[in-house]
Structures are given as C-alpha cells and as structure tokens.
C-alpha cells in the first residue's frame, strides 16, 4: 500500500499534537521505563477515530508504513507494527532550514576554519 506523502505529513503533524494527538508519555514495562512513547493499540484507535483510516487492517498497514519509513519505531527496535500493548516512539529528526544547511556547508568548506581535507589512502594500505 502506498500513501501520498503530503497526507502522511499531515497525519504525523496531528499525531504529535500535544492536545489532540496520539497520547505519548513515559511508560513502564518489566521494570523498565520507556520515555515519551505511545501504545500501538491506542494509535490504531486514534487513526480510526480521526477518520484517517476505515479499519484496523488499514491502521495496521499505515503503522507498518511509518515503521518501514523510519518515522516511528518500536522501543526495542526489533518489532513490526502491532495493534496491541506495544510501545512506539517517533524518530528524532533535527529541523534544519535550508539556510541553516547551506550555512553549515559553507562553514565546513571554509579554507582556514572548515574541515581539513587529507589524503587518507595511507590508512588503507596493508
């Protein structure tokens, strides 16, 4: 199943809304605290209640889509998306603006203060 990215972005924005989004909080399981996460089952219900999907099957496919595209992940990083008491959290992407990226690249390339460019072929000789 494929999704249009602009719709996915809107759903993610709504998911992360502190008031009306998917309930995220610190949760404990087997004496371990997982910070700022949500439960797969609550996410499925949230998607259905907000009319983003029509069924649990669609919600499961969308949840797996988010996992596959590294937008959310299971807290132990080894689980597919599941409709149950499984903890998921958002990947953390720094929000850099184009100007910030261009400025950073310019500073990195500056002749006297930027990164030094060295011949590293000596490090790979046997």
Key phrases:
globular, four-stranded antiparallel beta sheet, 126 residues, alpha+beta, 4 strands, 37% helix, single chain
What does this entry look like structurally?
The protein is of the alpha+beta class. Helix content is 37%, strand content 16%. Strand 1 (25-29) and strand 2 form a beta hairpin. Helix 2 packs across helix 3. The longest helix is centred in the middle third of the chain and has 13 residues, at 56-68. It starts with a helix and ends in a 17-residue tail after the last helix.
Q: Beta fraction of the residues?
A: 15-25%
Going by helix content, strand content and strand pairing, the class is alpha+beta
User: How would you spell out the order of helices and strands?
Assistant: HEEHHEEH
The shape, in one word, is globular
Count every beta strand, where a strand is a DSSP E run of 2 or more residues.
4
Largest sheet: 4 strands, antiparallel
Q: Give the count of helical stretches.
A: 4
**Assembly state:** single chain
Evaluate the radius of gyration: 20 Å
Task: Going across the biggest sheet, name each strand in turn.
Answer: 1-2-4-3
Mean pLDDT: 80
- Note the gap between the termini: 49 Å
Q: Percent range for helical residues? A: 25-40%
The low-pLDDT segments are: none
